Input
Amino acid sequence: MDLLLIILGSFLLLVGIIGCFVPVIPGPVIGYLALLVLKFSDGHDIGATWLWVFGILSVTVSIIDNVIPVYATKHFGGSKSGVIGSFVGLVMGLLFFPPFGFLFGPLLGAFAGELYEQQSDIKAAARAALGSLMGILAGSVLKLALVVWMAWVFYAAL
Output
């Protein structure tokens, strides 16, 4: 039974890492589930303190990940149209250009949204699109760092 739980936990960590780059998969939450699975195995104990810390961090990072792209787009001069364009671009990019659509979709979507809003200021639209891209990358890196840390704790407990 322990071997099955360890394999399941490893699979959840792999899906969690993939979820750091695919927005529809909550990477940190799935990585956290791997720690919970290990908690129920015999002989491989993760302390309750670690579970609380990673549970709080998983929820916090998931919330921050949704806020960073919007903040970055606005910080770089983006408007509501740029934020909406970034989201639409993200969805379109994931549907039609996987796996790299999560990078280029929001960039192109924010650019198109800003061009629609500002009509002719290509420089401002490009700046807002860059902000959107930087926000998405920052959120992905933050999620990846957390899931890798959880993976380290998972395998250290083995």
